[in-house]
UniProtKB/TrEMBL annotation:
InterPro entries: Lysozyme-like_dom_sf (IPR023346), Lytic_transglycosylase_MltB (IPR011757), MltB-like (IPR043426), SLT_2 (IPR031304). The keyword Signal applies. Pfam families: SLT_2. Keywords: Signal. One of its GO terms (molecular function) is peptidoglycan lytic transglycosylase activity. This is Lytic murein transglycosylase B. PANTHER family: MEMBRANE-BOUND LYTIC MUREIN TRANSGLYCOSYLASE B (PTHR30163:SF9).
Length: 321
């Protein structure tokens, strides 16, 4: 008898948990949403939400993101590989016209656009396998820590699906609800997505050219500084200890760090805003000057590991073009 109860308990625990979602909370969300977005009816919204499924593995994944658990050494090995570099070169050759035009129009280097698309989706090969609706539903109603944010993104996703004529119940993306070549969250899709073609639709799921235009627009709006450097490896001219972790947003100047014994690998304007980035690699500590454009890349993803992976992948592709 006891064995049977244990078996039954194990079976129940293995089934998807619907008790994690408070249906009254879903109803309240729909009611509040349609008050603000009068182009929707509550029945319409509930018809979509009733097709969403709670995915417990999404909760597991968001509680241990790679950027929060990996060393730079491990993180770098995922993205700075010859296969991904070669894919970036091939992507550049195929979409050279779009990349060069967008770069000229925005001031964002083509290799940085490539670096972001390469890190985000391996140039469109890995766009995500979760239904965006399921992801935002699970996180909005089953993850109290960030419920407000993901409910907001769920609302934006409903709006986006109508704006861009997307099938809300079918679009695939990441476990956090990011979509397409550029992995935009719904709010970013609405705010920053652009069509490469004038007066065209904004198709980040299927159009590499639209993704190129949108990534560059995102960085431009976040104040990318045309022609300015991004980062430079720092060498110590004397032993420095006790340096605290720095903000990715530059709050000092290059000269402040050179004054205490850090030398950039290449010439940098002493007055450029800077921070000092710290990475662990091959059992050693690397220091890099983080300049304003490095900070702009972290507006895409706040991790300094992410931004450095974008930069280094971009540089490797640039060398191979």
């Amino acid at each position: 008898m006891q064995k049977t109860l244990v078996t039954l308990l194990l079976i129940l625990l293995s089934l998807p948990s619907f008790s994690q979602i408070d249906k009254a909370d879903v109803e309240a969300f729909a009611s509040e949403f349609v008050k603000k977005e009068t182009q929707f009816s509550k029945d319409e919204v509930m018809a979509i939400l009733n097709q969403a499924e709670y995915q417990s593995e999404i909760i597991e994944k968001i509680t241990r993101p790679a950027e929060g658990t990996m060393t730079w050494e491990r993180y770098r090995k995922i993205f700075i590989k010859q296969g991904r570099i070669d894919a970036g070169v091939a992507f550049y050759k195929t979409h050279k016209t779009a990349l060069e035009k967008v770069s000229a129009d925005t001031g964002v280097p083509a290799e940085i656009i490539l670096g972001i698309i390469g890190v985000e989706t391996y140039f469109g090969k890995i766009k995500g396998s979760y239904k965006v609706l399921d992801a935002l539903y699970t996180l909005g109603f089953g993850y109290p820590k960030r419920a407000k944010f993901f409910k907001s993104e769920l609302g934006k996703f409903l709006i986006l699906s109508k704006l861009e004529n997307l099938e809300a119940t079918e679009i695939l993306g990441s476990y956090a609800g990011a979509m397409g070549y550029s992995q935009f969250m719904p709010s970013s899709y609405i705010a920053y997505a652009k069509s490469f073609e004038e007066n065209g639709t904004r198709d980040l799921m299927e159009s590499p050219e639209d993704a190129i235009a949108s990534v560059a627009n995102y960085l431009k709006v976040h104040r990318w500084k045309k022609g300015q450097p991004i980062t430079s490896k720092a060498e110590m001219t004397r032993k420095i200890t006790g340096l605290r972790k720095q903000s990715t947003k530059p709050k000092n100047k290059v000269s402040d760090y050179t004054a205490i014994g850090f030398k950039p690998a290449e010439n940098l304007n002493a007055d450029l805003p800077a921070t000092m980035l710290i990475f662990d690699k091959d059992g050693n500590t690397e220091h890099w000057f983080g300049l304003y454009n490095f900070y702009v890349i972290t507006r895409y993803n706040r991790s300094h590991l992410y931004a450095m992976a974008v930069y280094q992948l971009a540089e490797e592709i640039k060398k191979s073009i």
